[in-house]
Amino acid sequence: MKFLQTLLILLLGALVAVSCSDNASSDSDHGTLRVFLTDAPGNYEAVYVDIQAVRIHRSSDAEDGESGWIDINTEPMIVDLLQLTNGKFEILGETDLEPGRYNQLRLILGENNEVVIDGETHNLTTPSAQQSGLKLQLNADIEGGQMHTLILDFDASRSIVRAGNSGMYILKPVIRTAWLEQSGAIEGTIEPAGIEPWVYAIAGEDTLAGTRAEANGDFLMIGLLSGTYQVSIVPTNGENSMTILSNVQVSAPDTTNVGTVTLE
To answer: Of 37, 44, 177, 196, whose CB has the highest number of CB atoms within 10 Å?
Structure first.
């Protein structure tokens, strides 16, 4: 599918760039870390997240202001998460790192976070505990001369909480991490086209990934470890029935195509 093809083209380009850098630079013993942002969508019209910086540290306990932080990106950007479904992604940045283990990634969020519901824009407040940044534990081993691609799967549906009946909304980010080189994907097509159902990849009792099918029926879920999944297809139109595909096998780094699924 076109989204996965775009992803692979970018990865191949990145690998070529690393190879060229190895031949021309004395820093060939460094590894390269690239960070992608994608989304498990929510039932909103838009979710804007203000990302001010992305940083990494070897220590899992390092606090803001301590030495040892390495900037992956310090150029602020506002991203609409709902544009990053079905394998689409935003590149948050990349940097060269000395080989070794890195345990903490920190996503620094600004104040311009918003959600659009029924045409109305609401500010998303951020808990004070996240003012120094959203901490993600990685336990990542960076190898020299290698490209490492980290996927941050920002779950919009779980990350926005309504504060009672006040009309206020709180942003409590729920983010799943996955390494692209170590993960596979599930793709397929849902008929009839145009109904745009929700699609979820479930392992045991855990929903590990989700997306919403495109208008033409195509869907793609990336960042899945090798294993057996149940794919749940949930229409929102009230006319078609939910369908469950059992025992869908994923073998990283391949993509499993479940074919065309026709909903009754």
So the answer is: 37
